Amino acid sequence: xxxxxxxxxxxxxxxxxxxxxxxxxxxxxxxxxxxxxxxxxxxxxxxxxxxxxxxxxxxxxxxxxxxxxxxxxxxxxxxxxxxxxxxxxxxxxxxxxxxxxxxxxxxxxxxxxxxxxxxxxxxxxxxxxxxxxxxxxxxxxxxx
Amino acid sequence: xxxxxxxxxxxxxxxxxxxxxxxxxxxxxxxxxxxxxxxxxxxxxxxxxxxxxxxxxxxxxxxxxxxxxxxxxxxxxxxxxxxxxxxxxxxxxxx
Lengths: 144, 95
What we know:
The complex is a heterodimer. Chain A is about 5% helix and about 45% strand. By secondary structure, chain A is mainly beta. In chain A, the strands form two sheets. A four-stranded antiparallel β-sheet of chain A has the order 2-1-5-6, with no helix packed on it. Chain B is mainly alpha-helical. Chain B has helices spanning about 25-35, 45-80, 85-95, and strands spanning about 15, 20. In chain B, helix 1 crosses helix 2 and helix 2 (about 45-80) packs antiparallel against helix 3 (about 85-95). At the A-B interface, strand 5, strand 6 and strand 7 of A face strand 1, strand 2 and helix 1 of B.
């Protein structure tokens, strides 16, 4: 299997209606974990898994890095939220994609599957995930 | 009936480096992307002006990032020298 898609898990959509996730400052802790090309996440993915996660290196530890949240706001009639860019330093990593998940909620439920479009590698260097600008058409999580 | 729609997720941009941190060029580009977005559907004249402005901002950010790097390195050299770590200080001077 391989990383083939960037997708919002169906379970996340249900969990929004159940108030499982709190993106506000002081709300839940969200993390981003990196994966190799054997990971096979789809819309049916429901939670974080250690299977096929890249090995710890530099500032990257098992479970991934904690994301800094940007409090949800509205742009026009669209609600948006965002995360600050996340960097792992002095890290030797090859990743094909990532999973954003809620580290506070029971069972570490999945929020988003991110496909990097191929292998991204850092060697004893910096590995940075850059999130799209927080706009009505670009923000990582938007509800229109 | 209300139709709440979760927007399609865009692929993130990944920046990597080998044997050190990101370059000033990479950081300046990331910083400018956060400050200025140019809509592809904007009127051509406005789009061109915005792109020109974006380039100017990126150049300015790049120059100040280089200065920040030099300033930080100078501080590190002084910390090493004052701590008696002259070899480390000389190593940093050659960077």
